[in-house]
Amino acid sequence: MSILSLVNAACTRLIESGIRPEEAGLDAEVLARHLLGWDRATYFTERHQKITRAFDKEYISLIARRARREPVAYLTGMREFWGLEFTVTPDTLIPRPETELLIETVLQLRPDRSINGVLVDVGTGSGCIAVVLAIEFPNMTIVATDISQPALAVAQANAKRHGVSDRIELRHGPQLAGLSGSLDLIVSNPPYVTAQAMQHLAPEVRDHEPHLALNGGAGGTETLRALIEKTSLKLVNNGSLIVEFGCDQEAVFRQIANATHLTDIQVVHDIQGLPRVGVATYRNNQ
Ligand code: GLN
Predict the structure, then answer these.
(1) Which of 79, 214, 244, 276 most suits a substitution to test ligand 1, by most atoms within 8 Å of the C-beta?
(2) What is the C-alpha separation between 201 and 36, in angstroms, rounded?
(3) Which residue among 92, 128, 193, 207 has the greatest number of ligand 1 atoms within 8 angstroms of its CB, and so is best to mutate?
(4) What is the C-alpha to C-alpha distance for residues 135 and 67, in angstroms, rounded to an integer?
(5) I need a labelling partner for 58 at 20 to 30 A (CA). Which of 71, 142, 172, 209 fits?
(6) 103, 277 in Cβ contact below 8 A?
(7) pLDDT tens-digit readout, 112-130
(8) Distance CA 74, CA 89 (A)
(9) What kind and span of H or E run contains 66?
(10) What's the topology of domain 79-282?
(11) pLDDT category, 232, cuts 50, 70, 90?
(12) Using a 6 Å cutoff on CB, does residue 192 contact ligand 1?
């Protein structure tokens, strides 16, 4: 049997398990290439080769896991974010495109890449935000916090992989606990899914990604609220908070930020026009 025939059979199996046809074909191919260590070009020229017994066994087992709706990124252990490869495990959320909007927003807010100061990434998970910002702002001190020790181990591996482990201080603990009040930027992709909405997420997310990183409590905004409320005590004058939130949470973001002495509140929309990122600034001369 050829690699291609096995991949086609795997695709059918994935469709039967409820995965959308356009995703199933790509997943079956990506998992085959992952095991073979092939890029797309090699796959297209070599896919008529006969399968080996070892490949057959490993591939069938990966496809069975995918059919149980394990995300591809956990099966390959990798996801690309901001053009860089990040290690991901079930202890970390898989980086999503909407979080690239958060990065873009930070870069627009601080166009001078040579600035100093302290930037904190709250709930760093895989460390994708902290690592990208450490690279983009080579003179800033980066602190990345998380309540999950296993997630911090993944963040550390990613910092190392991208050559910024000496630039990122990893801290185990909730939100901004233990940090002094002289932070220049606070960034976060906090958990913001409502407890009820958790039940309706895709099986990949609901059954495999860490609920700690997704579940924002009853209204979905408890974690966000706790973070914003502490922010003005921790930022330097003109320091800013940049957070990702759910597309129906703009009003809550504005209301909490307004109530906590933050100013210049802005909301950034994604390419679909949905509000996804909030910015608020602390000014002590108000
Ligand atoms: N955007 C994610 C999802 O819908 C949620 C991420 C988060 O809660 N921070 O799966």
Answers:
(1) 214
(2) 32
(3) 193
(4) 37
(5) 209
(6) no
(7) 999 999 999 999 999 999 9
(8) 6
(9) helix 53-67
(10) Rossmann fold (3.40.50)
(11) confident
(12) yes
DSSP, collapsed to helix, strand or coil, labels residue 94 as coil
- Amino acid at the residue 25: G
What whole-number distance in Å separates Cα of residue 55 and Cα of residue 61? Answer: 10
> How much distance in Å is there from the Cα of 98 to the middle of ligand 1?
9
Give the DSSP H or E segment for 30.
helix 21-36
Amino acid at 6: L
User: Token digits for 210?
Assistant: 């860490």
Tens of pLDDT along 141-195? 999 999 999 999 999 999 999 999 999 999 999 999 999 889 999 999 999 999 8
Q: What is the pLDDT of residue 285?
A: 75
Three-point CA angle 60, 66, 70, nearest 5°: 140
Q: Using an 8 Å Cβ cutoff, are 184 and 236 in contact? A: yes
- For 102, counting Cβ atoms within 10 Å of its Cβ (0-12 exposed, 13-18 middle, 19+ buried), the class is buried
Q: Over 60: is that where the pLDDT of 286 sits?
A: no
